[in-house]
Amino acid sequence: xxxxxxxxxxxxxxxxxxxxxxxxxxxxxxxxxxxxxxxxxxxxxxxxxxxxxxxxxxxxxxxxxxxxxxxxxxxxxxxxxx
Length: 82
What we know:
The protein has one domain (about 10-75). Helices cover about 60% and strands about 0% of the residues. The protein has helices spanning about 10-25, 30-45, 50-60, 65-75. Helix 1 (about 10-25) packs across helix 2. The termini are far apart.
């Protein structure tokens, strides 16, 4: 199966992506993916996971055991009614 390819039609965007890829020693696709993820976070207002956990820790004063919280509210499904 062929790998998906990225086509950058803007010469300015292509040059910038190449320059950043060389400087950071990463692939152009990685640079573009990271830039788009960053843009998505800024535009949707979604906070990064690290900021969320820092805020959560500051609010409650201790680390929250998410696994325990999930297990506490987890119930077994009764299955389909026949």
